[in-house]
Design brief:
With 143 residues, this protein is mostly helical. 78% of the residues lie in helices and 0% in strands. The two termini are 35 Å apart.
């Protein structure tokens, strides 16, 4: 008889393999989610600028119409904060529209910078959370 203890059963490598597959899937999944979020948020300032330019074009036509007050009132929702710059009716409508275009573009550049900053923070936070989740999923904290 032998005094040696029987060898311990070998640990299954399938658990480790599934952890690695899950980790890699999460890496790609998180990158994809960040990309989807970014694809919705990043074009917003450009879309707003194009819509506001069209509204200011319509306002310029309305200001030269027979009833400029009613024309501007009809455009109030499309003009948003530009409406306040054009009321009360300006003495020089063309100059008022030109000034509002400059101010609107400055506001939209600021909006664009704010969205870009939020996107960067979102990427940083999601990356940290995904890293923690990946470590937990792969068993990195186990001894």
């Amino acid at each position: 008889m032998s005094d040696a203890a029987p060898p311990a059963p070998a640990k299954s490598s399938s658990n480790n393999r599934y952890s690695i597959i899950g980790f890699i899937a999460m890496c790609y999944g998180i990158i994809g989610l960040v990309g989807i979020f970014a694809s919705f948020a990043v074009p917003v300032p450009l879309a707003r600028a194009v819509a506001r330019e069209a509204a200011l074009d319509a306002a310029q036509i309305a200001l030269h119409s027979a009833d400029p007050k009613a024309g501007l009132e009809a455009l109030k929702l499309r003009l948003d904060d530009s409406y306040d710059a054009l009321t009360p009716l300006p003495a020089d409508p063309d100059r008022a529209i030109a000034n509002e275009r400059v101010a609107m573009r400055a506001r939209l550049v600021a909006d664009s910078a704010a969205i870009a900053e939020r996107m960067r923070w979102m990427i940083i936070i999601i990356t940290i959370l995904a890293g923690g989740f990946g470590i937990a999923l792969s068993g990195g904290g186990r001894k």
